[in-house]
Amino acid sequence: MAKEYVKFVDVTKCDGCKACMVACKNWNDLPVEETAFQGSAQSHPKTTADTWNVLQYIEHENAGGGLDYLFRHSSCFHCTDAACEKVCPENAISYTDFGSVVIDQDKCVGCGYCVQNCPFEVISLKEYKDKNGKEYRKAHKCTMCTDRLEEGLQPACVTTCHTGAMEFGDKEAMIRKAEKRVQEIKGRYPNAQVYNPQGVGGTHTVYVLAEKPSVYGLPENPKVPTSAVAWKDYAQPIGKMMLGATTMALVGAFVTNKLFNKEGKEQDGGGSNE
Fold first, then answer.
1. Which of 8, 88, 117, 138 could form a disulfide with 174 if both were Cys (CB 3.0 to 4.6 A apart)?
2. % of the chain residues with pLDDT over 70
3. Is 272 among the domain residues?
4. What is the mean pLDDT of residues 2-13?
5. According to the annotation, is 17 in a ligand binding site?
6. Average pLDDT rounded to a whole number, residues 176-186
7. Is 88 annotated for ligand binding?
8. pLDDT band at 201 (very low <50, low <70, confident <90, very high)
């Protein structure tokens, strides 16, 4: 079994150069996107199906009344207990031995439940057309460069970071390093903390943040929806034993649509304007 890894991101060392974005685009052969002006040095408002990692720029007034310019490399967190994996009705999302969470494009049907239920909003759907012109969708996100990990290499974003703001290594070693770094910078950043939310079982992208998570647009305490836990960890295994895998797959598609389709719930409760 492969060793479990963590990508450690120290935002206090980041200078906003965007080399990580370029490296990600190059390695994964992702196309250029035209985006509207963001009003800052930030090029994209968030990750997309064709931009799996975004450098965030945040202007923040500190406790002393001064202005801090904060940066954050934003990509998939690769949760240990991932909501996207639990709500996928096709079992298209899985964990690797490295700790990364990946999407099997051959199984993905573009239902969008993973997009709607990701607490970090890092998954997006991309539109495609087949040879007959029929449209279909696939979910995309950062893979933690799992293909590189399988060859003994590090993620492309990590290898190109010239300030040492990103490191990649053994899970426990990286978490210890993050905790030590927080103690080193507490004098300058009183709110500094390790961001490794336990509500999703911990993550395989662990941050040292200079401020509270909300300052970076992150949820303070993200959790896997209770309905997703009950369905994936209890109802599905029991149902397969009682009904069989094929029947349970049909039941699963129906239940998943009812439980996890947030857009559907909003439409049902909002009435019609027509």
1. 8
2. 80
3. no
4. 92
5. yes
6. 97
7. yes
8. very high
Domain match, 234 and 119 both: no
257, 253, 199: which is closest to 81 by C-alpha? Answer: 199
Distances (CA, A) of 106 to 52, 76, 262: 19, 20, 24
Domain count within the chain = 2
CB atoms near residue 220 (< 10 Å): 10
Q: Is 67 annotated among the ligand-binding residues?
A: no
47 in a known ligand binding site: no
Does residue 229 share a domain with residue 219?
no
Provide CB contacts within 8 A for 93, sequence distance 6+.
82, 84, 85, 101, 102, 103, 104, 114
Q: Are residues 160 and 258 in the same domain?
A: no
- Quick one: pLDDT band at residue 10, thresholds 50, 70, 90? very high
φ/ψ of residue 69, rounded to 5: -100, 110
Greater model confidence, 274 or 8: 8
Domain interval for residue 230: 225-267
Amino acid identity of residue 200, one-letter, is V
Domain assignment present for residue 13? The answer is yes
